Amino acid sequence: MNSFWDFALTQWQKPQVEALALDVQRQHGPVVYFLLGAWLAERGQPYSPPLLASIKKKVEPMEAQLTKMRGERSTLTGADKQAALAKELALEKQLYQQLARMVPAPDSTVNPSRFCWWHQFFPHCDEAQFSIWRTTLGLD
Question: pTM of the entire structure?
Answer without folding.
Answer: 0.90
